């Protein structure tokens, strides 16, 4: 292992601690969750693209959110599975490590921006229904998606570049299953206190900045729904928002737990658990949260499946 060199040219991922039996159990669990996540989000994308009943801003954003979820989980989970399957530590080059970290953070940032936009969409739909088609027109939706992707990648390039300008001379072993920035900072011989504080401020800006419009939007939405005189009307209005609200709680809870902390070099176990929430649990739950209670999507999915079966018979 690297000890007295000026900087690392590759890293070794320590992965998960524990016995071989634990590794086999984790491998079986994640090997099941990853394809289910991939297939579930792919189904959402296909149904949204095919069925005309789902050609609305809400499902347009949901389709792009599913794309982000697939890419986010694919950044780290395949390498994690490979590390669980093989004994010993997993080697990763400096360039691959930087690319993985950049993609992970950029996709996560884009996802938070998009989730905030989805909350605003629900606000307009419930609180300004007569102007909904004017405000949330196709051009607006396309620009929101483009800006979320561009902002996510541009915002994270400089922090990742600054991280890899540090000198890694303490070791080249990362106590994680992917290139976690907190563990990278631990290996640096440079004074990283300013870098950690800057990263903390950026995390606060991204997460809290996208959380504020979400909170404001849902405060107005709930206030408006409670004013609806009929119970059935309230239930119908709530049904269009409950899935997104549940996803917001899961996604923001995981991100706040992982990123919004002044000291980025937290304990490895702390980061591992939080990272699993972001990389595995949230993408896995996304298809179920958004579709199981959505009668419109379930109906569209059934029709698409019937059409596919009919074509196969023909």
Instruction: Kindly report how far apart the N and C termini lie.
Output: 61 Å
CATH class: Mainly Alpha
* Overall SS class: mainly alpha
Amount of beta strand: under 5%
Total tally of structural domains: 1
How are the strands ordered across the major sheet?
A: 2-1-3
Instruction: Tell me the CATH topology.
Output: Rhopdopsin 7-helix transmembrane proteins
Q: Architecture in CATH? A: Up-down Bundle
Taking all residues together, what is the mean pLDDT? 83
Give the overall form. Answer: globular
The percent range for helix content is: over 70%
The beta-strand count equals 3
The CATH superfamily name is Rhodopsin 7-helix transmembrane proteins
Order of helices and strands: EHHEHHHEHHHHHH
Instruction: Describe the largest sheet.
Output: 3 strands, mixed
Work out the helix count.
11
Task: Please tell me how large the radius of gyration is.
Answer: 22 Å
Function: Putative odorant or sperm cell receptor.
Membrane topology: Multi-pass membrane protein
Subcellular location: Cell membrane
Main location: membrane
């Amino acid at each position: 292992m690297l000890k007295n060199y000026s900087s690392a040219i590759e890293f070794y991922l320590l992965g998960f601690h524990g016995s071989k039996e634990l590794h086999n159990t984790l491998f079986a669990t994640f090997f099941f969750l990853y394809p289910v996540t991939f297939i579930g989000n792919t189904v959402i994308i296909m149904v949204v693209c095919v069925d005309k009943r789902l050609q609305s801003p809400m499902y347009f954003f949901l389709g792009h959110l599913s794309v982000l979820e697939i890419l986010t989980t694919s950044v780290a989970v395949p390498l994690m599975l490979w590390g669980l399957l093989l004994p010993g530590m997993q080697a990763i080059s400096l360039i691959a490590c930087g690319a993985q970290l950049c993609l992970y953070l950029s996709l996560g940032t884009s996802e938070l921006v998009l989730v905030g936009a989805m909350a605003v969409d629900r606000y307009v739909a419930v609180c300004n229904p007569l102007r909904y088609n004017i405000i949330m027109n196709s051009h607006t939706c396309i620009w929101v998606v483009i800006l979320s992707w561009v902002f996510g990648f541009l915002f994270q390039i400089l922090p990742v570049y600054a991280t890899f300008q540090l000198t890694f001379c303490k070791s080249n072993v990362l106590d994680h299953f992917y290139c976690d920035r907190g563990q990278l900072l631990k290996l640096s011989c440079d004074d990283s206190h300013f870098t950690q504080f800057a990263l903390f401020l950026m995390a606060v800006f991204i997460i809290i900045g996208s959380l504020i419009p979400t909170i404001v939007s849902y405060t107005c939405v709930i206030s408006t729904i409670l004013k609806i005189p009929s119970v059935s009307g309230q239930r119908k209005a709530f049904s269009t928002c409950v899935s997104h609200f549940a996803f917001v709680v899961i996604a923001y809870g995981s991100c706040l737990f992982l990123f919004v902390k002044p000291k980025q070099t937290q304990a490895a176990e702390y980061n591992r658990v939080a990272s699993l929430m972001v990389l595995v649990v949230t993408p896995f739950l996304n298809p179920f949260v958004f579709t199981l209670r959505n009668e419109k999507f379930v109906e569209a999915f059934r029709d698409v499946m019937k059409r596919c079966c009919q074509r196969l018979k023909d």
